[in-house]
Write a structure and sequence with these properties.
The protein is mainly beta and 264 residues long. It has a domain of 89 residues. 7% of the residues lie in helices and 38% in strands. The protein has one helix and 21 strands. A hairpin with a 5-residue loop joins strand 16 and strand 17. The longest helix is centred in the first third of the chain and has 18 residues. The relative contact order is 0.10.
């Protein structure tokens, strides 16, 4: 019993010493630390990994750590491949933290393409309480992202983020892609042609940012072709069909109406 108590006290003292020498503030079991040197800090949920796979964070920047000293947010000091969100019902910042089920960051040779992404040095990164990246910046010009077993897309350099359920939220498309926008059931056949029939799908342009909702429907993106979409029409609840030119960036409301449209 005495030995167990001594180990507990030693652990508390170790964490306290870990924080000494940094500018720190406490908010709901989270701490802000200003790093004096480039520092490797373990994210939550790791049970085993290798030195090179521990994220290194940039000196003279602020990191956010939890009550266990695990990093939740910080600025990367080097490029690194890390696991991204695969689905969770937990919030990114839970009110009460409990140690999550452990995950394993594999070595570079064994990393499954569908589980990790390359993140860019000098950019901010955010983890959930399982050690998965929910927001960061891609370092590669072309990366294959798996949404589920049947759906993949290539994403390009730029900011990327995910919802807690694992659905992609924002990214930059590396290729032209057909996706369904919010309210797609209202435009099932409006964009059919003599040689194509894709109910509710419209094509979005590569090299441009895109935003999805938690169901994978587009809420903002840039059109790759002239496209018929619904626009608000005053007292008409059903809206009015309007042709938008290729290259137009459109933003949809929750009813599927285009509320903002701008040309390149």
């Amino acid at each position: 019993m005495k030995k167990s108590l001594s180990q507990t006290v030693a652990g508390i003292l170790l964490i306290a010493l870990f924080l000494v020498g940094y500018n720190a503030s406490v908010d709901a079991a989270q701490y802000n630390r200003t790093l004096k040197e480039n520092t490797r800090i373990m994210p939550p949920g790791i049970i085993v990994t290798k030195w090179d796979n521990i994220p290194k964070f940039k000196k003279e920047t602020t990191v956010i750590i939890n009550e266990y000293g695990e990093v939740l947010e910080g600025t990367l000091a080097e490029n690194i491949r890390l696991p991204y969100v695969t689905g969770s019902s937990q919030s990114i910042r839970p009110a009460a933290y409990t140690p999550p089920q452990f995950i394993f960051i594999p070595s570079a040779a064994d990393e499954p393409v569908t589980k990790v992404l390359p993140f860019k040095s000098g950019t901010r990164i955010i983890f959930n309480d399982k050690g998965e990246v929910v927001k960061g910046t891609i370092s590669s010009s072309t990366v294959i992202l798996t949404l589920n077993q049947a759906n993949q897309l290539r994403v390009s350099t730029g900011e990327i983020s995910f919802y807690n359920n694992g659905m992609l939220e924002t990214c930059t498309l590396a290729e032209d892609y057909y996706l369904r926008p919010v309210g797609w059931k209202q435009i099932l056949t409006e964009n059919f042609t003599d040689n194509s029939a894709c109910p509710g799908f419209i094509e979005f342009k590569s090299g441009k940012p895109i935003t999805l909702n938690e169901q994978g429907e587009v809420t903002k993106g840039t059109l790759n072709k002239n496209t018929k979409l619904l626009a608000p029409a005053g007292v008409l609840a059903s809206g009015v069909l309007k042709l938008y030119a290729a290259g137009t960036t459109v933003e949809f409301d929750d009813k599927g109406f285009v509320i903002n449209a701008s040309n390149e």
